[in-house]
DNA sequence: CGATCTTTGTTGTATATACAAGTTGTGGGT
DNA sequence: ACCCACAACTTGTATATACAACAAAGATCG
């Protein structure tokens, strides 16, 4: 018994779907039927169906049955990591420069993204991430000062804001928006790139239990940074 | 017993991690210990640990034990969907225009991405996706003609390439790269945007069982299209 | 002291069973 | 023809048990 029984059942069902025997939304054999067919216990058959459901291949409804999931939901996924990890994994020499660490009153955009009142006290950190000394990303981050009053006293030469936030406020949720923009003068200067250069811009909000923790604007020159993702559907 | 027992155990462990009782890489109580503590069977305790592992919170090793996963692996994820679905869901009026459907010999870049020899026969489809009549994305797609000889005969006015490929060659893998570029003349003209405008560019390769099926270059004006993602870490 | 064997603990697979909870179709009664 | 109750089926939760595979620490032996 080299391959576990539940894996054999999973492979069998996947085969039926890919060969067209089980079309989209078709009904799949029930746990008891599979248990009979494969001469296993119901719990083993159940595990096969369960795991395929978690993988998005099937969908189940209590009392009704198990069905082939609609295929178009198998959209691909892009993983976004910390830029420090990314540079390190690619063999680059990561360094960062803290440009500013100030407190200010929330503008309309900031207040909206942090879900606080306009004029509330927020910290702003401005950090330049470099790969082999070349600027690759400008990180402008806003943090609700009421939620994390210690943010303004951190030594971001030793720890990145991302790492600090990971420790004190474990993420529960995140949303982000990726777009392409033309950098303005100020940003061009920091990034040491020409004007009219296309930049990749990520606006990211992260939640913790207590609410929105931080709002970050990450800007990178299009010719120095790109997002890569790989996903396996199997 | 409104909430299942295994959920209670999961919540308890998550609480210990978030409160700092269980730091990164710390050892978690074993299945038998949890079963004793919570007065449940080992299989129920097991399920809690199992699900937390699948969620990336814990990591397990046969014979060794269960441990808190390193936190930095909790990077967020961006889901990329078909642009047609995206426009439709946002209440827009989706339309598409087939600009070209030709066959040509693979250039170096195309051959590399499709993992075929330079000069091999490939189909190229050029499609303009529009939202309320405004061009939002230019899709340039290359398909291995040996793998899918029928691609050149499809009616892409009725079905999008994405939909067609989903049917004939179910995806098993995909990789993509997102960057910001300055559009060249030709693309500017198709997209009806000014030169020097920043564009979001996605290069996507999709695999099927048989190999690389298609290589697509998707270009969108930065001011008309952005990628949005939301993820919940539970 | 060092290498090897053994013991113990832990996770992984598998089964048999029981009851709960929800869906669906069937049949009976009005 | 319509509504309602019920039976049959399906998935969800939970338990008790058995054995296999693996890891790490400790005991034994050369």
Automatic annotation (TrEMBL), chains A, B:
Claim: Transcription is one of the keywords in the record: yes
Matching Gene3D superfamilies, A to Z? Chorismate lyase-like, Winged helix-like DNA-binding domain superfamily/Winged helix DNA-binding domain
Which keywords has UniProt assigned to this entry?
DNA-binding, Transcription, Transcription regulation
The UniProt GO MF terms for this protein read: DNA binding; DNA-binding transcription factor activity
Q: Which InterPro entries match?
A: Bact_HTH_transcr_reg, Chorismate_lyase_/UTRA_dom_sf, DeoR_HTH, His_ut_repres, Tscrpt_reg_HTH_GntR, UTRA, WH-like_DNA-bd_sf, WH_DNA-bd_sf
Domain named HTH gntR-type: residues: 3-71
Pfam families in UniProt = GntR (PF00392), UTRA (PF07702)
**SUPFAM superfamilies xrefs:** Chorismate lyase-like (SSF64288), Winged helix' DNA-binding domain (SSF46785)
Any one Gene Ontology BP term: negative regulation of DNA-templated transcription
Q: What is this protein called?
A: Histidine utilization repressor
């Amino acid at each position: 018994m080299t391959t576990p029984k539940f894996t054999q059942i999973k492979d069998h069902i996947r085969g039926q779907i890919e060969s067209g025997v089980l079309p989209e939304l078709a009904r799949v054999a029930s746990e008891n039927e599979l248990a009979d067919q494969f001469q296993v216990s119901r719990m083993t058959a159940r595990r096969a169906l369960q795991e395929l459901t978690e993988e998005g291949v099937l969908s189940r409804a209590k009392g009704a049955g198990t069905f082939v999931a609609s295929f178009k939901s198998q959209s691909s996924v892009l993983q976004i990591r910390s830029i420090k990890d990314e540079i390190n994994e690619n063999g680059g020499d990561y360094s960062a420069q803290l440009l500013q660490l100030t407190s200010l009153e929330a503008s309309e955009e900031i207040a909206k993204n942090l879900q606080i009142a306009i004029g509330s006290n927020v910290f702003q950190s401005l950090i330049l991430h470099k790969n082999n000394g070349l600027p690759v990303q400008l990180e402008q981050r806003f943090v609700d000062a009421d939620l994390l009053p210690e943010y303004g006293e951190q030594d971001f030469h030793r720890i990145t804001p991302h790492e600090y936030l990971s420790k004190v406020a474990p993420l529960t949720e995140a949303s982000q928006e990726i777009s392409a923009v033309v950098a303005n003068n100020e940003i061009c200067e920091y990034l040491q790139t020409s004007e009219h250069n296309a930049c990749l811009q990520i606006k990211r909000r992260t939640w913790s239990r207590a609410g929105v923790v931080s709002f970050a604007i990450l800007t990178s020159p299009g010719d120095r940074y790109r997002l890569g993702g790989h996903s396996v559907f199997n």
